[in-house]
Amino acid sequence: MSENIEEIEVTESKPIKPKKQLTEQQLLNLQKAREKGLEKRRELAVLNSKSKAIKEEQLKLNAMEYDKLKKEEELKKLKQKELDDIVNKQQEKQQEKQQEKQEKEEKKKKKIKKIIYEESEEEEEEVVIVRKKKESAAPSKQSQPSYTQIANMSLQNQLQQKLNEEKFNSLYAQLIRCRY
Questions:
Q1: Nearest one of 163, 162, 145, 141 to 94, comparing CA atoms
Q2: Contact, 90 vs 155, CB < 8 A?
């Protein structure tokens, strides 16, 4: 069977064009163009690597700034908690002092003097109950605060001033960041 198959060569009718021959000048120009292109590609590669590095650095800086902001917020929260704790403690102390004062006043009010007079002739006993009333000097003491009250008020004022300053500074810092 292999004898019956004849090999037929198929040739296409398109004529093969010979390559255009370049002159020496054209070859030199082509070589210069290739060198310039290679140089440009290298420059672009360097610029690309630099731009990627800049983007990475910017991301790192943004991450660091974010971390700083988080730490500042945590510190502010801690400071706020501490200040709140201090204020609460002072308020509790003041309430305790007021309660103690009220208890003392109640104790003073409850004191009752009993005076018993005995008369031998009649043999009768008289019981006189005398209650002490507050003097008119008491309101003057209330109008003038004690040294402890003055100290507590000054501490409260200082804490309020510090809180206001911190609020102002944080708002100011936020405004400055927004501008730039």
A1: 145
A2: yes
* Single pTM value for the model: 0.34
79-127 pLDDT tens trace:
999 998 998 999 999 999 999 988 888 777 655 666 665 555 555 555 5
125 bridge partner residues: 118
Name the phi and psi angles at 20, rounded to 5.
-75, 130
Coil, helix or strand for 144? coil
Least Cα distance to 87 among 166, 4, 162 occurs for 162
**Nearest in space to 89 (alpha carbons), one of 1, 152, 12, 16:** 152
Judge contact between 97 and 148, C-beta under 8 A. Answer: yes
pLDDT digits (tens, 9 = 90+) for 44-89: 999 999 999 999 999 999 999 999 999 999 999 999 999 989 989 9
Q: Say which DSSP state 121 is in.
A: T
Q: Of all helices (H) and strands (E), which one includes residue 149?
A: helix 147-179
Tokens of 178: 């927004």
